Amino acid sequence: MDVQAQSLMHALKAFSQRLLLHPWAKLWVGVLCALPGVYLVYGAFTESLGVNPAETLIRQSGDLTIRALCYVLLVTPLKDLLKMPALLRHRRTLGLAVLAYAFLHLLCYAWLDMGLELDDIVQDIFKRPFIFVGMAGFVFLAALGATSFNAAIKAMGPKRWKTLHQAVYVVATLAVLHFYWMRAGKHRFEDVIFYGAILSLLLLYRMVQALRHKMSRSA
Ligand code: HEM
């Protein structure tokens, strides 16, 4: 890389770092995360979600959940690759966006598919394996969301907190399994392979990092 390109990269990195550390940056990240959900709900109110709005709402909120999950897991590899620790400031906001979209997805299913009938929902969870797996993912996510605040980190201690929050990879595995099972009946796997590949690579990265860390400590 020549000197000019190098100084341009340097300036770009410094600018991004300043943006990420801006006092309002968390708010803007939150707004950006919420936009696709607001657009989806707006579509429902303006009746512009096509011939089957309930199906569109359930599926698109599912897509938003798995996409947000990919973004939150991308934070650490990007931080390492770009050497930009300020990215970590926004991991909690992204994590809460995953939970919010999963909740929207669950709410759309419970309301539009099941008419908010609790007995029917419980029966469905045990009847359809893909619903069971999705629900298990949601329970893990809720536990991560509930312990994502500073008070919880303090109460649990950073080591136990970190161990619990590695369950985000369990959520990712359950999410892909849920998606695979849902699409298995339709034999349409392109999107499942796409998200499965991204999440597998991110999990692999995490495993390699953990192994390196262990080896450097024992050396
Ligand atoms: C970690 C949490 C979850 C993730 C990441 C997730 C993700 C997804 C994805 C990606 C889809 C497919 C969307 C498409 O076809 O484009 C989907 C569909 C669906 N999910 Fe989830 N989901 C989760 C939790 C749940 C829960 C808790 C339930 C209900 C208890 C649920 C019920 C459904 C239903 C009913 C469908 C649509 C099935 C159909 O149209 O045939 N999901 N989900």
Quick overview of this protein structure:
With 219 residues, the protein is an all-alpha fold.
Bound molecules: protoporphyrin IX containing FE
Number of helices: 10
N-to-C SSE series? HHHHHHHHHH
User: How much helix is in the residues?
Assistant: over 70%
Tell me how many strands there are: 0
The total tally of domains equals 1
Whole-number average pLDDT? 96
> Any low-confidence stretches, pLDDT <50, length ≥5?
none
The radius of gyration over CA amounts to 20 Å
Q: Indicate the proportion of strand residues.
A: under 5%
What is the terminal separation in angstroms? 35 Å
What does the main sheet amount to?
none
Task: Give a written overview of the molecule.
- By secondary structure, the protein is an all-alpha fold.
- It has one domain.
- 83% of the residues lie in helices and 0% in strands.
- It has 10 helices and no strands.
- It has helices at residues 3-21, 25-45, 53-82, 91-113, 118-127, 129-146, 150-156, 158-165, 168-184, 190-218.
- The longest helix is centred in the first third of the chain and has 30 residues, at 53-82.
- It is globular, with a radius of gyration of 20 Å.
- The mean pLDDT is 96.
- The chain binds protoporphyrin IX containing FE (HEM).
- Protoporphyrin IX containing FE (HEM) binds at residues 55, 58-59, 62-63, 65-66, 69, 102, 105-106, 109, 113, 131, 134-135, 137-138, 141, 171, 175, 178-179, 182.
